[in-house]
Amino acid sequence: MAAWQGLLDELLRERRPALIGYAALLTGDRASAEDLVHDAVVRTFGRPRAFPNVNAADAYVRRAIATIFVDRARSRGRWLAALPRLVAGAAVPEDDVAGRLDARAALRTLPQRQRACVVLRFYDDLTVAEIAARLGLSEGSVKRYLSDGIHHLNAVLGTTAEAGEAQGVDVAVTGRTPR
Fold first, then answer.
1. What is the pLDDT of residues 108-118, one digit of tens each?
2. What's CA 115's distance to the chain center, in Å?
3. Which of 30, 60, 85, 109 lies at a 20 to 30 A Cα distance from 176?
4. Do the Cβ atoms of 20 and 40 come closer than 8 Å?
């Protein structure tokens, strides 16, 4: 068995639920998220690449997920409005359920680019420059999408967070290890 096949097996065995959860934050539903992860894995392992470990492969697949998501949005020319769903089997404390559902419902109301920027900023903890590079936007556009998205989320959730603050409701996904 080639080295990449062992790495692919390990990635899918250990990280598939987390990758699907990550994709679900962007796409809004599990079926689309599974398709997106499949396409990202095929794109990643469809060519010979030398990843030193499963963490590097995971990071590459996550980047491919975001790239494919944005590419599809551009080609379709419409916004997705599906609600990110909880990944099956997630153990959620009872007191956090309402806040998480409110946050997910609020994310559903955002236009796709605003949602992508908000998820990449507050879930992946990327900087404005990193988001701009990943989505192929100018930094000014990313700042505007973040500002508009946070103001909209504040209105929907009745909060007062500012764009520079990273406070919010945890939208934990099964299998995801925070960085």
1. 788 888 888 88
2. 9
3. 109
4. no
